[in-house]
Backbone:
């Protein structure tokens, strides 16, 4: 019998400007925010729905799943974050770091104990407030130290402006 999928129920108890979920397979410590996770798995999550359930595959699981929600109006102290990993038979329910985003996960458990203390003192970007306070970047350092997260492959180049492959009729 195949393993049960990870099930996550997300309930927005306040308005958010940004809401995403990423399956983290590798990291890019030269980036912050979502780009810290290179090219992650990105299941669709609907910002406009108050509550929703997602089923995440357990075959070829990522190193971790990471949920991020930024409130509207933006306030760093109210940013919601939850890192979790597939663990058969486990269930957890609570707020994603701060009140406002309530989460229930089945077949998974939260990853705790990560934060600014995971960033090495000698990390070149540690002195940048933009990086040091980015919880995604903090978690990426935890993944590097605790799960031996590999470096992300290079990002594909941005597409050229316009569409050079499209014909124009004049």
Residues:
């Amino acid at each position: 019998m195949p393993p049960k999928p990870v099930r996550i129920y997300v309930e927005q108890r306040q308005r958010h400007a940004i809401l995403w979920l990423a399956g983290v397979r590798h990291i890019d410590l030269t980036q912050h925010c979502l780009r810290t996770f290179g090219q992650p798995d990105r299941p669709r999550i609907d910002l406009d729905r108050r509550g929703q359930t997602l089923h995440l595959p357990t075959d070829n699981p990522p190193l971790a799943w990471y949920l991020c929600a930024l409130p509207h109006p933006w306030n760093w102290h109210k940013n919601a974050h939850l890192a979790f990993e597939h663990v058969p038979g486990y269930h957890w329910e609570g707020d994603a770091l701060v009140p406002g985003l309530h989460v229930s996960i089945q077949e998974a458990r939260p990853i705790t104990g990560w934060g600014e203390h995971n960033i090495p003192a000698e990390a070149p970007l540690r002195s940048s407030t933009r990086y040091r306070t980015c919880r995604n970047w903090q978690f990426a350092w935890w993944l590097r130290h605790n799960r031996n997260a590999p470096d992300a492959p290079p990002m594909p180049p941005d597409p050229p402006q316009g569409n050079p492959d499209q014909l124009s009729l004049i």
About this structure: The longest strand covers residues 80-95.
